[in-house]
Amino acid sequence: METGYITIWGKDMAEEQKTVLIVDDSAMLRRIVNDALDILDFEVLEAESAFEGQEQLEKHQVDLIILDWVMPEKSGYDFFLELKEHEAFSSIPVIMLSAEDGKDMMLKAIRAGIRHYVTKPFTHEDLLARVVQVLKLNI
Amino acid sequence: MIEELKPQEFVKIRDLLVSVCGIVLNDDQDYLVETRLTEMAHEVGVNNFGQLHDVISKDKSLLTRVVDLMTTNETLWFRDQSCWVTLKEVIVPHLIEKLEKGQFNVKIWSAASSTGQESYSLLILIKELLAQKNQSEYFNRFSIVGTDISNEVIFLAKRGIYDPFTISRGMSEERLNKYFTKERKSYKINEEIKSRVEFKNFNLMDSFIPLGKFDLVLCRNVAIYFSGEFKKELFEKISRALVPDGFMMLGATESLIGIDNNFKNLSHGNGLYYNLG
Ligand SMILES: C[S@@+](CC[C@H](N)C(=O)[O-])C[C@H]1O[C@@H](n2cnc3c(N)ncnc32)[C@H](O)[C@@H]1O
Predict the structure, then answer these.
(1) Distance between alpha carbon B156 and the CA centroid of its chain, in Å?
(2) Which tens digit of pLDDT belongs to each residue from A57-94?
(3) What's the pTM value of the predicted model, to 2 decimals?
(4) CA neighbor of B107 nearest in space, from B273, B265, B243, B275
(5) One domain, residues B90 and B148
(6) Average per-residue pLDDT for chain B
(7) Domain check: are B270 and B139 in the same one?
(8) What's the number of CA atoms in the CB half-sphere (13 Å) around residue B25?
(9) Is B2 contained in some domain?
(10) How far does residue B238's CA lie from ligand 1's centre (Å)?
């Protein structure tokens, strides 16, 4: 794995480059999220379905999954429930992206163990702040 | 697994937030508490919100994280045109004049800096106005302190790297070429601009005395979250953090109406700004 450098409190500290997987059926959204993550110098993997996401997870070690709720075939939510049952993947944090800002959907996701929930349209400031927090980049 | 939020736990957390952080939650925002604080409950190892309440009420660093989670970090370059016209035509020229009259340096505070766009926009404006007047040598006499309660946004502001979409929210092509360097797909603010700002974590609930005095305070799009009582205290503390002829600016949709304060309202076109009269 490549090594990236992240400046923390003015010091250069060698940090292992983090890998983030984006699972979303919309190519445009994948690109927006991928671009947003570019500033943090991650290795970014993309998948356009839960099925492809699963394949990526089997091939790569992933530190964070950014998952779209609504996708044809298998929803992001159902995919998340499957990952939770899977020993190798159950501890990977998930940020759920969803246009459904309904209270019930959000509660359902959080009660199922999703770490963070970002509603579309989301601001990059909020998405990146959550990513920094989940991966503890600022500590 | 964390137990679902019970109504009496919501009331306890809401009361704690308003009394210690000045943040107001409405009755129907119980789901926000549950959706945004569940992660924290996991992290501190409690299994219900009653216990989370007890832990955060004793731990100030957790409380500030709660405030961060309950507010948005959205920001833009040169946000609200009327404010920037006022900065360009009235306030920055006044600050430059202070230097011309012999003041040694000008100190500015961006009191809820989020990811840094406000501070960097202002430095770009200052740089341009100085260049127009052939006074570029004054640039290093300006300094901005950008503060925010959120560690995460401070981390991002210090990096000063922005993705194309974020850049597109208010940064012109011309300024982009002039003040940023392309890094992969993103844009990094140039060192000369960056060197004039220091970002740090700071909670507006705390005393402002350690920060010193400022010629200009930008307190934009943050007071909206606070209770009336806390707003009053906030503006009182800002008035004491200003030099006698200092200025304050709010967001374009904000005003001091209904808040007991000692500021004088001033206007320039559609832009409002304040001084101590
Ligand atoms: C909407 S942003 C405003 C950014 C910028 N001033 C602007 O107008 O574009 C509000 C910021 O206030 C910060 N904030 C909220 N409560 C705060 C507090 N008590 N002390 C310091 N910052 C706070 C949030 O973390 C957020 O980044």
Answers:
(1) 14
(2) 999 999 999 999 889 999 999 999 999 899 899 989 99
(3) 0.90
(4) B243
(5) yes
(6) 94
(7) yes
(8) 25
(9) no
(10) 15
